[in-house]
From TrEMBL:
Domain of life of the organism encoding this protein: Bacteria
Protein name: Addiction module protein
InterPro entries recorded: CHP02574_addiction_mod
Pfam families attached to this UniProt entry: Unstab_antitox
Biological source species: Oleiharenicola lentus
Length: 71
C-alpha cells in the first residue's frame, strides 16, 4: 500500500497530510511490539561486556567527530 493508492490524500494540503501522518504514527506507536529474543540477547551481551570494561566508550564529541563526513 502506497500513497498512490489514496489519490484523495495526495490532494490535501501539506499541513493536513502531516496531521494524518502524525495520527497514523501515533496509532502504530501505541501498539505493543515484541522485541525479538535475538535482539534481547545481543543487548544483554553488550551490556555485560560494557559493565565488565570490555567495551571502549566514546564521549559525545568523539562520537560526533567519528561520524562527520567531509564537506
Amino acid at each position: 500500500m502506497t500513497l498512490a493508492d489514496f489519490p484523495q490524500l495526495k490532494r490535501l494540503p501539506s499541513r493536513q497530510r502531516l496531521k494524518l501522518a502524525e495520527q497514523l504514527w501515533d496509532s502504530a506507536a501505541t501498539e505493543s511490539m515484541a522485541v525479538p529474543a535475538g535482539h534481547k540477547r545481543l543487548i544483554q551481551s553488550r551490556r555485560k561486556a560494557y559493565q565488565q570494561g570490555q567495551i571502549a566508550t566514546l564521549t559525545m564529541d568523539e562520537l560526533k567527530k567519528s561520524i562527520k563526513r567531509p564537506k
